[in-house]
Structures are given as C-alpha cells and as structure tokens.
Model the fold of this input.
Amino acid sequence: MAERTYATDQIEVHWNSGRCIHTGWCSKALIAVFNTEQRPWIQLEAGPLDEIVKVVENCPSGALSYRRLDGGPQEEPDVPATIVPWPNGPYFVRGSFEVKDRHGEVFDTSPRATLCRCGASANHPFCDLSHREAGFSSYPRVSEPPPEEAE
Done:
C-alpha cells in the first residue's frame, strides 16, 4: 500500500492508500487541490492553506493527515471520541483513541478512522470497502429503518 507526502513551505499532507476508502469528499470539497485525474493527484499550491486543512480534517478514514510548517495549529482530536455507524458501511471514528493489536500494543493513534463492521476487510480493523462486495447491510439508528419496520 502506497504512502506519499506532498509538501509546500507551509504544510505537509500525508496520504495513506491503505486507509483510503475513496469517499471522494476531498475532491468534492476542493477539486483544484485533490484531483484524481491529475498527477500528482494532490496539488497543494492550487488552494488556500486553511481550506486544505479543513478538507484534510474532514477525511473520514484518516487516509489524509497534515503537519503545518507555518506555525499554525496542528489537528487536535475531538474529545470525547465518537463512533458513528455508516449505513451499510464502516464505523466512522473521530477523536482521541488508540487502536491496539491482540497483544495490547498500540499501532494507530490517528484522530480519524473507518473501522470494518462487515468482517470482510483484508485490512482489519480498518475498512477497505469489502462490505460492498460482501453485500453487507445494516440498519443502525442513523439510517432509515428496513421497509418492514417503517410501517
């Protein structure tokens, strides 16, 4: 899985392809900077710094992260952490949390993650979109009830 860092003198943006679930939220929010049709696909010079920071902080999977080099504030995790089940998809996790392996060792502390709910991910505990092929469906409280319960 690829990891890349894109930088200017004001900011470094890191992309971890192993965490990306391709929601496209970054491209929809700031296409001049985050455009998968161009290479490199991240063009930091094409957008305002504060907008880039906002877009990166809205990346649900944590695949995008940043480090400000201009003395500006770094990302602060939400407190308390929140977990939101996405309809027919992963858990969206935001905040201050640790992901540990079965031995109790911390291997991730990013402020955002999408965690697998379907059990089919090849990148556990993170989502890799396998729920789509697996036909996973759920009816968490954040989504519409199943048709038979709506009556």
